[in-house]
Amino acid sequence: MERAGCIEMIYPELEDRIVVTIMGACAQELYNLGDRDNFFYLQHAMGLASSIGLGLAMHLPAERVIVLDGDGSVLMNLGTFVTLARYRPRNLIHVVFDNGSLLSTGGFESQTAAGVTDLAAIARGAGIEHVATASTTIEFGEAFLAALECEDLSVIVAKVAAVGPEHYGMDLHLPENAFRFKRWIKTRKRA
């Protein structure tokens, strides 16, 4: 299964939700589907998408927050699972695309490539109740829909191939993305 196909499958569900992506391939693949004001592409901050997602979820409890993350990013910030479990924001879905590779920073194998490190088991061990794994697009789609219906903190670990987009390059700079994202959130809070 490929990450781009998973993102494309859930893209219609992201239209009216807060979305935070990690840098690199994940951000580029979402951007390629069609940029939206409610997407925050966290460039140059590997490991922090879940932390920003947590802050947004806690600050905006009436909004559904979706974090699109990667295995390298989660491994860089393993404390994220215990922090998420501690605060348990019921409006947060944390999707981890596990390709066993640090694809966006050189393509080196991550610790999950050897089959020894299990991110879903780590999330469960940290105290997160709703954890799903997916290795097919059908399993991923079902897990995502279940997380939307669950209305509780959910983590989905999707095993994907270590492939990325054909090209990298967004016509959107980080400051512009941040200001636009902030304005979108302000209009939602007013409504």
Summarize the structure.
This protein is an alpha/beta fold and 191 residues long.
Describe the fold and architecture:
The chain has 191 residues and is an alpha/beta fold. The chain has one domain (3-190): Rossmann fold (3-Layer(aba) Sandwich), CATH 3.40.50.970. It has helices at residues 3-10, 25-33, 49-59, 71-76, 79-87, 119-126, 137-150, 174-190, and strands at residues 18-21, 39-41, 65-70, 92-98, 101-102, 108-109, 130-134, 154-159. The strands form 2 sheets. A 6-stranded parallel beta sheet has the order 2-1-3-4-8-7, with helices on both faces. Strands 5-6 form a two-stranded antiparallel sheet. A hairpin with a 5-residue loop joins β5 (101-102) and β6. The radius of gyration is 15 Å and the shape is globular.
Largest sheet, strands/sense/barrel: 6 strands, parallel
Distance between the termini: 39 Å
Rg, nearest Å:
15 Å
By CATH reckoning, the class would read: Alpha Beta
Task: Tell me the count of domains.
Answer: 1
Please state the structural category.
alpha/beta
> What is the strand content?
15-25%
Named CATH architecture:
3-Layer(aba) Sandwich
Q: What is the CATH topology?
A: Rossmann fold
Number of helices: 8
Question: CATH homologous superfamily - what is it?
Answer: Thiamin diphosphate (ThDP)-binding fold, Pyr/PP domains
Low-confidence stretches: none
Roughly what is the average pLDDT, rounded to an integer? 92
Strand order of the largest sheet: 2-1-3-4-8-7
What is the helix fraction of residues, given as a range?
40-55%
Record field, number of beta strands: 8
